[in-house]
Specification:
The complex is a heterodimer of chains A (81) and B (417). Helix content of chain A is 14%, strand content 27%. Chain A has 81 residues and is of the alpha+beta class. Chain A has one domain: Roll (Ubiquitin-like (UB roll)). Chain B folds into three domains: 188 residues, 3-Layer(bba) Sandwich (FAD/NAD(P)-binding domain), CATH 3.50.50; 135 residues, 3-Layer(bba) Sandwich (FAD/NAD(P)-binding domain); 51 residues. Classes of the chains: A alpha+beta (81), B alpha/beta (417).
Protein backbone atom coordinates (compact mmCIF):
# COMPACT_ATOMS: atom_id res chain seq x y z
CA UNK A 1 0.00 0.00 0.00
CA UNK A 2 1.24 3.49 -0.88
CA UNK A 3 -0.45 6.89 -0.83
CA UNK A 4 -0.79 9.06 -3.91
CA UNK A 5 -1.91 12.63 -3.18
CA UNK A 6 -3.24 11.38 0.14
CA UNK A 7 -5.30 8.53 -1.35
CA UNK A 8 -4.32 4.92 -0.53
CA UNK A 9 -3.40 2.81 -3.58
CA UNK A 10 -2.81 -0.93 -3.57
CA UNK A 11 0.25 -1.93 -5.64
CA UNK A 12 1.88 -5.26 -6.40
CA UNK A 13 5.37 -6.32 -5.34
CA UNK A 14 7.88 -4.79 -7.74
CA UNK A 15 5.54 -2.10 -9.11
CA UNK A 16 7.14 1.27 -9.78
CA UNK A 17 5.80 4.56 -8.44
CA UNK A 18 4.66 5.37 -12.01
CA UNK A 19 2.19 2.48 -11.67
CA UNK A 20 0.86 3.77 -8.35
CA UNK A 21 0.21 7.23 -9.85
CA UNK A 22 -1.59 5.68 -12.84
CA UNK A 23 -3.66 3.45 -10.54
CA UNK A 24 -4.68 6.56 -8.60
CA UNK A 25 -6.27 7.73 -11.85
CA UNK A 26 -3.77 10.40 -12.84
CA UNK A 27 -2.35 10.60 -16.35
CA UNK A 28 -0.70 13.95 -15.50
CA UNK A 29 2.32 13.57 -13.21
CA UNK A 30 3.60 17.12 -13.31
CA UNK A 31 2.81 20.60 -14.63
CA UNK A 32 5.21 22.10 -17.16
CA UNK A 33 6.80 25.57 -16.78
CA UNK A 34 3.94 27.00 -18.87
CA UNK A 35 1.27 25.08 -16.94
CA UNK A 36 0.63 22.11 -19.24
CA UNK A 37 -0.14 18.65 -17.81
CA UNK A 38 2.63 16.10 -18.49
CA UNK A 39 3.00 12.37 -18.01
CA UNK A 40 5.80 9.82 -18.55
CA UNK A 41 7.44 9.74 -22.00
CA UNK A 42 10.50 7.49 -22.02
CA UNK A 43 9.71 5.04 -19.21
CA UNK A 44 13.44 4.56 -18.58
CA UNK A 45 14.64 7.48 -16.49
CA UNK A 46 15.84 9.81 -19.23
CA UNK A 47 13.10 12.39 -19.90
CA UNK A 48 12.23 13.41 -16.31
CA UNK A 49 8.60 13.97 -17.34
CA UNK A 50 7.36 11.57 -14.63
CA UNK A 51 8.98 13.36 -11.73
CA UNK A 52 7.02 13.44 -8.48
CA UNK A 53 7.62 14.14 -4.80
CA UNK A 54 8.26 10.97 -2.77
CA UNK A 55 8.33 11.11 1.04
CA UNK A 56 9.10 14.81 0.89
CA UNK A 57 11.88 14.55 -1.69
CA UNK A 58 11.04 16.49 -4.86
CA UNK A 59 11.96 15.57 -8.47
CA UNK A 60 12.10 11.77 -8.06
CA UNK A 61 11.64 9.80 -11.28
CA UNK A 62 8.46 7.75 -10.76
CA UNK A 63 9.40 5.25 -13.48
CA UNK A 64 12.73 4.34 -11.84
CA UNK A 65 11.59 4.17 -8.21
CA UNK A 66 10.13 0.91 -6.84
CA UNK A 67 7.15 1.27 -4.49
CA UNK A 68 7.83 0.70 -0.80
CA UNK A 69 5.05 0.13 1.76
CA UNK A 70 3.77 3.38 3.27
CA UNK A 71 5.40 5.58 0.64
CA UNK A 72 3.82 9.04 0.27
CA UNK A 73 3.72 10.25 -3.32
CA UNK A 74 2.62 13.72 -4.44
CA UNK A 75 2.24 14.75 -8.06
CA UNK A 76 3.01 18.40 -8.91
CA UNK A 77 -0.25 18.39 -10.79
CA UNK A 78 -2.06 18.18 -7.45
CA UNK A 79 0.43 19.91 -5.17
CA UNK A 80 0.41 23.27 -6.97
CA UNK A 81 -3.38 23.64 -6.98
CA UNK B 1 28.75 3.99 1.07
CA UNK B 2 32.56 3.56 1.12
CA UNK B 3 34.42 3.91 -2.17
CA UNK B 4 34.93 0.74 -4.20
CA UNK B 5 37.74 -0.51 -6.45
CA UNK B 6 37.57 -3.03 -9.32
CA UNK B 7 39.89 -4.26 -12.04
CA UNK B 8 37.10 -4.08 -14.61
CA UNK B 9 34.11 -1.77 -14.22
CA UNK B 10 31.19 -2.06 -16.63
CA UNK B 11 28.66 0.78 -16.90
CA UNK B 12 25.28 -0.47 -18.08
CA UNK B 13 23.71 -3.85 -17.32
CA UNK B 14 21.89 -4.42 -20.61
CA UNK B 15 22.90 -7.32 -22.89
CA UNK B 16 26.29 -5.80 -23.86
CA UNK B 17 27.19 -4.91 -20.28
CA UNK B 18 26.06 -8.28 -18.90
CA UNK B 19 28.09 -10.15 -21.51
CA UNK B 20 31.14 -7.97 -20.84
CA UNK B 21 30.89 -8.41 -17.06
CA UNK B 22 30.45 -12.19 -17.37
CA UNK B 23 33.53 -12.62 -19.57
CA UNK B 24 35.80 -10.31 -17.56
CA UNK B 25 34.77 -11.93 -14.29
CA UNK B 26 35.08 -15.49 -15.66
CA UNK B 27 38.59 -14.57 -16.79
CA UNK B 28 39.44 -13.91 -13.13
CA UNK B 29 39.26 -10.12 -13.08
CA UNK B 30 37.61 -8.40 -10.08
CA UNK B 31 34.58 -7.04 -11.94
CA UNK B 32 31.51 -4.94 -11.22
CA UNK B 33 28.63 -3.84 -13.41
CA UNK B 34 26.58 -0.81 -12.44
CA UNK B 35 23.22 0.39 -13.74
CA UNK B 36 20.77 3.21 -13.13
CA UNK B 37 17.81 0.81 -13.19
CA UNK B 38 16.63 -1.16 -10.16
CA UNK B 39 17.55 -4.54 -11.74
CA UNK B 40 19.98 -5.81 -14.42
CA UNK B 41 18.77 -6.61 -17.96
CA UNK B 42 18.68 -3.20 -19.63
CA UNK B 43 15.61 -2.05 -21.51
CA UNK B 44 15.20 -5.17 -23.67
CA UNK B 45 15.27 -7.51 -20.67
CA UNK B 46 13.57 -5.17 -18.22
CA UNK B 47 11.55 -7.12 -15.68
CA UNK B 48 12.98 -10.50 -16.78
CA UNK B 49 14.12 -11.20 -13.21
CA UNK B 50 10.53 -10.65 -12.08
CA UNK B 51 8.60 -12.32 -14.89
CA UNK B 52 10.81 -14.33 -17.23
CA UNK B 53 9.88 -14.74 -20.87
CA UNK B 54 13.18 -14.89 -22.74
CA UNK B 55 15.43 -17.96 -22.42
CA UNK B 56 18.33 -15.83 -23.65
CA UNK B 57 17.76 -13.30 -20.83
CA UNK B 58 17.53 -16.12 -18.29
CA UNK B 59 20.81 -17.56 -19.62
CA UNK B 60 22.74 -14.28 -19.30
CA UNK B 61 21.27 -13.28 -15.93
CA UNK B 62 22.12 -16.72 -14.57
CA UNK B 63 25.60 -16.61 -16.07
CA UNK B 64 26.11 -13.21 -14.43
CA UNK B 65 25.16 -14.63 -11.01
CA UNK B 66 27.56 -17.56 -11.48
CA UNK B 67 30.35 -15.26 -12.70
CA UNK B 68 30.38 -13.57 -9.26
CA UNK B 69 30.72 -10.14 -10.79
CA UNK B 70 29.39 -7.54 -8.38
CA UNK B 71 26.10 -5.96 -9.51
CA UNK B 72 25.44 -2.37 -8.40
CA UNK B 73 21.88 -1.40 -9.34
CA UNK B 74 20.04 1.87 -8.81
CA UNK B 75 23.42 3.57 -9.27
CA UNK B 76 23.79 6.64 -11.46
CA UNK B 77 27.10 7.91 -12.79
CA UNK B 78 27.32 11.60 -11.93
CA UNK B 79 30.78 12.68 -13.04
CA UNK B 80 34.33 11.72 -13.98
CA UNK B 81 36.30 11.70 -10.70
CA UNK B 82 39.76 11.84 -12.26
CA UNK B 83 41.80 9.06 -13.92
CA UNK B 84 40.36 5.62 -13.14
CA UNK B 85 37.43 6.79 -11.05
CA UNK B 86 33.75 7.72 -11.44
CA UNK B 87 31.60 9.64 -8.98
CA UNK B 88 28.30 7.80 -8.57
CA UNK B 89 25.07 8.26 -6.64
CA UNK B 90 22.85 5.60 -5.09
CA UNK B 91 19.71 7.03 -3.52
CA UNK B 92 21.43 10.35 -2.66
CA UNK B 93 24.49 8.53 -1.30
CA UNK B 94 27.58 9.62 -3.23
CA UNK B 95 30.72 7.51 -3.54
CA UNK B 96 33.57 6.80 -5.93
CA UNK B 97 34.03 3.64 -7.96
CA UNK B 98 37.63 3.12 -9.14
CA UNK B 99 38.77 0.90 -12.00
CA UNK B 100 41.75 -0.19 -14.05
CA UNK B 101 39.65 -0.81 -17.16
CA UNK B 102 36.26 0.71 -17.90
CA UNK B 103 33.71 -0.82 -20.30
CA UNK B 104 30.96 1.56 -21.40
CA UNK B 105 27.71 -0.17 -22.33
CA UNK B 106 25.34 2.74 -21.81
CA UNK B 107 22.85 1.55 -24.44
CA UNK B 108 20.42 3.65 -26.40
CA UNK B 109 17.24 5.62 -25.95
CA UNK B 110 14.29 6.29 -28.24
CA UNK B 111 14.32 9.16 -30.68
CA UNK B 112 11.21 11.30 -30.26
CA UNK B 113 10.09 13.72 -32.96
CA UNK B 114 7.88 16.69 -32.11
CA UNK B 115 4.44 16.97 -33.72
CA UNK B 116 1.38 18.90 -32.49
CA UNK B 117 0.10 17.28 -29.31
CA UNK B 118 3.14 15.09 -28.63
CA UNK B 119 3.41 16.53 -25.10
CA UNK B 120 -0.08 15.31 -24.05
CA UNK B 121 -0.16 12.75 -21.23
CA UNK B 122 -0.48 9.20 -22.68
CA UNK B 123 1.62 10.01 -25.74
CA UNK B 124 4.52 7.80 -24.71
CA UNK B 125 7.57 6.23 -26.33
CA UNK B 126 7.03 2.80 -27.89
CA UNK B 127 9.70 1.24 -25.71
CA UNK B 128 8.53 3.70 -23.06
CA UNK B 129 5.02 2.28 -22.85
CA UNK B 130 6.44 -1.26 -22.83
CA UNK B 131 8.69 -0.33 -19.88
CA UNK B 132 5.80 1.27 -17.97
CA UNK B 133 3.60 -1.80 -18.51
CA UNK B 134 6.44 -4.06 -17.32
CA UNK B 135 6.61 -1.80 -14.25
CA UNK B 136 2.93 -2.58 -13.57
CA UNK B 137 0.92 0.00 -15.58
CA UNK B 138 -2.53 -1.54 -16.18
CA UNK B 139 -3.12 -1.82 -19.95
CA UNK B 140 -5.89 -4.46 -20.21
CA UNK B 141 -8.67 -3.23 -22.51
CA UNK B 142 -6.88 0.06 -23.33
CA UNK B 143 -6.82 1.14 -26.96
CA UNK B 144 -3.27 1.70 -28.21
CA UNK B 145 -1.90 3.00 -31.51
CA UNK B 146 1.79 2.18 -32.11
CA UNK B 147 3.73 4.51 -34.42
CA UNK B 148 7.18 5.63 -35.50
CA UNK B 149 9.82 3.40 -37.01
CA UNK B 150 11.84 0.25 -36.58
CA UNK B 151 11.47 -3.38 -35.54
CA UNK B 152 10.86 -2.25 -31.95
CA UNK B 153 7.30 -1.22 -32.96
CA UNK B 154 6.44 -4.85 -33.78
CA UNK B 155 7.92 -6.20 -30.56
CA UNK B 156 6.07 -3.56 -28.52
CA UNK B 157 2.74 -4.22 -30.28
CA UNK B 158 3.06 -7.98 -29.73
CA UNK B 159 3.94 -7.40 -26.06
CA UNK B 160 1.01 -5.00 -25.47
CA UNK B 161 -1.44 -7.37 -27.18
CA UNK B 162 -0.24 -10.22 -24.99
CA UNK B 163 -0.81 -8.05 -21.91
CA UNK B 164 -4.41 -7.41 -22.96
CA UNK B 165 -4.24 -4.06 -24.79
CA UNK B 166 -6.35 -3.43 -27.89
CA UNK B 167 -3.68 -2.50 -30.45
CA UNK B 168 -5.55 -0.82 -33.30
CA UNK B 169 -2.69 0.13 -35.63
CA UNK B 170 1.05 -0.09 -36.16
CA UNK B 171 2.10 2.92 -38.27
CA UNK B 172 5.60 2.43 -39.72
CA UNK B 173 7.02 5.48 -41.51
CA UNK B 174 9.34 3.45 -43.79
CA UNK B 175 7.90 2.78 -47.26
CA UNK B 176 6.75 -0.71 -48.22
CA UNK B 177 9.34 -1.39 -50.99
CA UNK B 178 12.23 -0.77 -48.59
CA UNK B 179 10.73 -3.15 -46.06
CA UNK B 180 10.26 -5.82 -48.73
CA UNK B 181 13.97 -5.63 -49.57
CA UNK B 182 14.73 -5.85 -45.86
CA UNK B 183 12.42 -8.87 -45.49
CA UNK B 184 14.07 -10.64 -48.42
CA UNK B 185 17.43 -9.99 -46.76
CA UNK B 186 16.23 -11.93 -43.73
CA UNK B 187 16.12 -15.10 -45.85
CA UNK B 188 19.87 -15.45 -45.37
CA UNK B 189 19.51 -15.05 -41.59
CA UNK B 190 17.49 -18.04 -40.35
CA UNK B 191 17.46 -16.86 -36.72
CA UNK B 192 16.15 -13.41 -37.67
CA UNK B 193 13.61 -14.95 -40.03
CA UNK B 194 12.29 -17.23 -37.28
CA UNK B 195 12.02 -14.20 -34.97
CA UNK B 196 10.13 -12.25 -37.65
CA UNK B 197 7.70 -15.14 -38.29
CA UNK B 198 7.13 -15.60 -34.57
CA UNK B 199 6.31 -11.89 -34.24
CA UNK B 200 4.00 -12.07 -37.27
CA UNK B 201 2.13 -14.91 -35.56
CA UNK B 202 1.87 -13.03 -32.25
CA UNK B 203 0.66 -9.87 -33.96
CA UNK B 204 -2.35 -11.79 -35.30
CA UNK B 205 -4.83 -9.39 -36.85
CA UNK B 206 -3.16 -6.09 -35.92
CA UNK B 207 -3.05 -3.71 -38.88
CA UNK B 208 0.57 -2.94 -39.91
CA UNK B 209 0.62 0.09 -42.20
CA UNK B 210 3.85 1.10 -43.89
CA UNK B 211 4.56 4.58 -45.25
CA UNK B 212 2.34 6.05 -42.54
CA UNK B 213 3.01 8.43 -39.64
CA UNK B 214 1.25 10.53 -36.97
CA UNK B 215 0.40 14.14 -37.93
CA UNK B 216 -1.09 15.31 -34.64
CA UNK B 217 -2.28 14.04 -31.27
CA UNK B 218 -5.51 15.48 -29.92
CA UNK B 219 -6.90 15.63 -26.40
CA UNK B 220 -7.60 17.77 -23.37
CA UNK B 221 -5.95 16.71 -20.12
CA UNK B 222 -4.87 13.52 -21.86
CA UNK B 223 -4.75 11.89 -25.30
CA UNK B 224 -8.07 11.16 -27.04
CA UNK B 225 -7.03 10.45 -30.61
CA UNK B 226 -4.36 10.72 -33.30
CA UNK B 227 -4.46 11.98 -36.88
CA UNK B 228 -2.38 9.77 -39.20
CA UNK B 229 -1.18 10.40 -42.73
CA UNK B 230 0.17 8.26 -45.55
CA UNK B 231 1.29 11.33 -47.51
CA UNK B 232 -1.86 11.40 -49.66
CA UNK B 233 -4.74 11.28 -47.22
CA UNK B 234 -5.15 11.67 -43.48
CA UNK B 235 -7.57 10.09 -41.02
CA UNK B 236 -8.41 10.09 -37.34
CA UNK B 237 -7.92 7.18 -34.97
CA UNK B 238 -9.25 7.40 -31.43
CA UNK B 239 -7.06 5.77 -28.77
CA UNK B 240 -6.14 5.87 -25.08
CA UNK B 241 -2.40 5.66 -25.71
CA UNK B 242 -0.04 6.50 -28.56
CA UNK B 243 3.19 4.50 -28.28
CA UNK B 244 5.54 6.37 -30.58
CA UNK B 245 9.29 6.25 -31.18
CA UNK B 246 11.39 6.94 -34.29
CA UNK B 247 14.21 4.49 -33.81
CA UNK B 248 16.98 4.50 -31.23
CA UNK B 249 19.97 6.78 -30.56
CA UNK B 250 23.06 5.86 -28.50
CA UNK B 251 23.50 7.31 -25.00
CA UNK B 252 26.75 9.24 -25.53
CA UNK B 253 26.84 11.45 -22.42
CA UNK B 254 29.34 9.41 -20.40
CA UNK B 255 31.65 8.47 -23.32
CA UNK B 256 31.69 12.15 -24.37
CA UNK B 257 32.47 13.28 -20.84
CA UNK B 258 35.43 10.89 -20.73
CA UNK B 259 36.71 12.26 -24.05
CA UNK B 260 36.00 9.23 -26.27
CA UNK B 261 35.88 10.14 -29.96
CA UNK B 262 32.36 10.15 -31.37
CA UNK B 263 31.93 9.48 -35.08
CA UNK B 264 28.60 9.49 -36.97
CA UNK B 265 26.66 9.67 -33.74
CA UNK B 266 28.33 6.67 -32.07
CA UNK B 267 31.47 5.89 -30.06
CA UNK B 268 34.41 4.96 -32.29
CA UNK B 269 36.06 1.66 -31.34
CA UNK B 270 38.73 -0.66 -32.78
CA UNK B 271 38.43 -4.41 -33.32
CA UNK B 272 38.93 -5.05 -29.56
CA UNK B 273 36.12 -2.57 -28.70
CA UNK B 274 38.80 -0.15 -27.45
CA UNK B 275 37.80 3.55 -27.66
CA UNK B 276 40.24 6.38 -28.43
CA UNK B 277 40.84 6.77 -24.66
CA UNK B 278 43.30 4.26 -23.14
CA UNK B 279 41.70 1.82 -20.71
CA UNK B 280 38.16 2.70 -21.82
CA UNK B 281 36.27 0.16 -23.96
CA UNK B 282 32.77 0.44 -25.38
CA UNK B 283 30.21 -2.16 -26.51
CA UNK B 284 26.60 -2.49 -27.63
CA UNK B 285 24.23 0.21 -28.89
CA UNK B 286 26.65 2.96 -27.75
CA UNK B 287 28.96 2.06 -30.67
CA UNK B 288 26.00 2.23 -33.10
CA UNK B 289 22.48 0.85 -32.72
CA UNK B 290 22.49 -2.71 -34.07
CA UNK B 291 20.29 -4.86 -31.84
CA UNK B 292 20.69 -7.74 -29.45
CA UNK B 293 23.07 -10.11 -31.30
CA UNK B 294 25.54 -7.32 -32.04
CA UNK B 295 25.37 -6.10 -28.43
CA UNK B 296 26.08 -9.59 -27.08
CA UNK B 297 28.98 -10.17 -29.47
CA UNK B 298 30.55 -6.78 -28.75
CA UNK B 299 30.01 -7.16 -25.01
CA UNK B 300 31.79 -10.50 -24.93
CA UNK B 301 34.64 -9.18 -27.06
CA UNK B 302 35.02 -6.17 -24.74
CA UNK B 303 34.94 -8.36 -21.61
CA UNK B 304 37.53 -10.81 -22.92
CA UNK B 305 39.84 -8.10 -24.26
CA UNK B 306 39.61 -6.13 -20.98
CA UNK B 307 40.87 -9.29 -19.29
CA UNK B 308 43.66 -9.79 -21.86
CA UNK B 309 42.04 -12.93 -23.34
CA UNK B 310 42.46 -11.90 -26.94
CA UNK B 311 42.08 -15.41 -28.37
CA UNK B 312 38.60 -15.66 -26.77
CA UNK B 313 37.71 -12.23 -28.13
CA UNK B 314 38.92 -13.10 -31.62
CA UNK B 315 36.70 -16.19 -31.71
CA UNK B 316 33.69 -13.84 -31.67
CA UNK B 317 34.79 -11.60 -34.55
CA UNK B 318 32.77 -13.62 -37.10
CA UNK B 319 29.60 -13.36 -35.06
CA UNK B 320 30.10 -9.60 -34.70
CA UNK B 321 30.70 -9.17 -38.46
CA UNK B 322 27.45 -11.02 -39.24
CA UNK B 323 25.50 -8.87 -36.76
CA UNK B 324 27.08 -5.72 -38.27
CA UNK B 325 25.79 -6.67 -41.73
CA UNK B 326 22.30 -7.00 -40.25
CA UNK B 327 22.69 -3.57 -38.62
CA UNK B 328 23.48 -2.02 -42.01
CA UNK B 329 20.35 -3.52 -43.57
CA UNK B 330 18.30 -2.16 -40.63
CA UNK B 331 19.75 1.33 -41.15
CA UNK B 332 18.82 1.25 -44.84
CA UNK B 333 15.31 -0.09 -44.29
CA UNK B 334 14.25 2.25 -41.49
CA UNK B 335 15.95 5.53 -42.49
CA UNK B 336 13.66 8.42 -41.52
CA UNK B 337 11.74 10.11 -44.39
CA UNK B 338 12.00 13.88 -44.91
CA UNK B 339 8.24 14.41 -44.44
CA UNK B 340 8.80 13.85 -40.71
CA UNK B 341 10.72 17.14 -40.59
CA UNK B 342 7.55 19.02 -41.46
CA UNK B 343 5.34 17.63 -38.67
CA UNK B 344 6.54 20.25 -36.20
CA UNK B 345 4.57 23.53 -36.35
CA UNK B 346 5.76 26.99 -35.24
CA UNK B 347 4.18 26.72 -31.79
CA UNK B 348 4.91 23.00 -31.24
CA UNK B 349 7.13 22.57 -28.18
CA UNK B 350 10.50 21.00 -28.96
CA UNK B 351 12.13 21.23 -25.51
CA UNK B 352 9.65 19.74 -23.04
CA UNK B 353 11.65 20.67 -19.94
CA UNK B 354 11.73 24.40 -20.67
CA UNK B 355 8.66 24.58 -22.96
CA UNK B 356 10.59 26.03 -25.92
CA UNK B 357 8.54 26.10 -29.16
CA UNK B 358 10.02 25.45 -32.61
CA UNK B 359 9.66 29.09 -33.79
CA UNK B 360 12.10 30.23 -31.09
CA UNK B 361 14.69 27.66 -32.15
CA UNK B 362 14.94 27.51 -35.89
CA UNK B 363 16.17 31.10 -36.30
CA UNK B 364 19.38 30.22 -34.44
CA UNK B 365 22.29 28.76 -36.32
CA UNK B 366 23.53 26.20 -33.82
CA UNK B 367 22.56 24.11 -30.81
CA UNK B 368 24.86 26.22 -28.65
CA UNK B 369 23.33 29.53 -29.76
CA UNK B 370 19.81 28.18 -29.26
CA UNK B 371 20.68 26.92 -25.77
CA UNK B 372 22.10 30.28 -24.74
CA UNK B 373 19.13 32.26 -26.09
CA UNK B 374 16.20 29.95 -25.29
CA UNK B 375 17.29 27.51 -22.53
CA UNK B 376 16.46 24.67 -24.94
CA UNK B 377 18.12 21.48 -23.69
CA UNK B 378 18.98 23.03 -20.31
CA UNK B 379 16.26 21.44 -18.18
CA UNK B 380 16.48 18.22 -16.15
CA UNK B 381 16.83 15.92 -19.20
CA UNK B 382 19.77 18.04 -20.43
CA UNK B 383 18.84 17.71 -24.08
CA UNK B 384 18.42 13.92 -24.07
CA UNK B 385 14.95 14.27 -25.64
CA UNK B 386 15.17 17.47 -27.73
CA UNK B 387 18.81 16.91 -28.80
CA UNK B 388 18.18 13.97 -31.16
CA UNK B 389 15.02 15.74 -32.39
CA UNK B 390 16.83 18.94 -33.44
CA UNK B 391 19.66 16.89 -34.94
CA UNK B 392 17.09 15.45 -37.31
CA UNK B 393 14.96 18.60 -37.78
CA UNK B 394 17.68 21.23 -38.14
CA UNK B 395 20.84 19.20 -38.81
CA UNK B 396 22.56 20.65 -35.72
CA UNK B 397 25.38 18.83 -34.02
CA UNK B 398 24.32 18.36 -30.44
CA UNK B 399 27.24 17.99 -28.07
CA UNK B 400 29.16 19.61 -25.21
CA UNK B 401 28.21 17.51 -22.22
CA UNK B 402 29.20 18.87 -18.81
CA UNK B 403 29.19 17.26 -15.38
CA UNK B 404 27.05 16.45 -13.52
CA UNK B 405 25.56 14.41 -16.36
CA UNK B 406 22.33 13.93 -14.41
CA UNK B 407 20.74 16.55 -12.13
CA UNK B 408 21.77 16.31 -8.48
CA UNK B 409 21.19 18.68 -5.55
CA UNK B 410 23.99 21.26 -5.44
CA UNK B 411 24.43 20.80 -1.70
CA UNK B 412 25.33 17.17 -2.33
CA UNK B 413 28.25 18.09 -4.55
CA UNK B 414 29.32 20.93 -2.25
CA UNK B 415 29.03 18.76 0.85
CA UNK B 416 31.25 16.08 -0.59
CA UNK B 417 34.98 16.43 -0.19
Amino acid sequence: MVEVNGTPVRVAEGDMVSTAVALAGDSAFRVSVNGEPRGPLCGMGICFECRVTIDGRAHCRACQTPCRPGMQVWTDARQDV
Amino acid sequence: MPDKTFEVLVVGAGPAGLAAACCASEAGRRTAVLDDNPAPGGQIWRGEGRRSSSPQAAYWLDRLRRSRAEVLCGVRVVADAGPGALLVDRDQDFFEVRYNTLILATGARERFLPFPGWTLPNVIGAGGLQALVKAGLPIVGQTVAVAGSGPLLLAVAAFLKKRGARVVLIAEQAPFPRLVRFGLGLMTEPAKLREALRLRWQLGGIRYRTGCWPLAAKGDDRLRGVTFSDGRKSWKQSCDYLACGFGLVPNLELPSLLGCEIRNGAVRVDEWQQTTIAGVLCAGETTGVGGLELALAEGQIAGWSAAGRHEHARALFGERARALRFKESLDRAFALRDELKTLVEADTLVCRCEDVPFHRLHKHESWRAAKLQTRCGMGPCQGRVCGPAVEFLLGWRVESVRPPILPIPLGRLAGRD
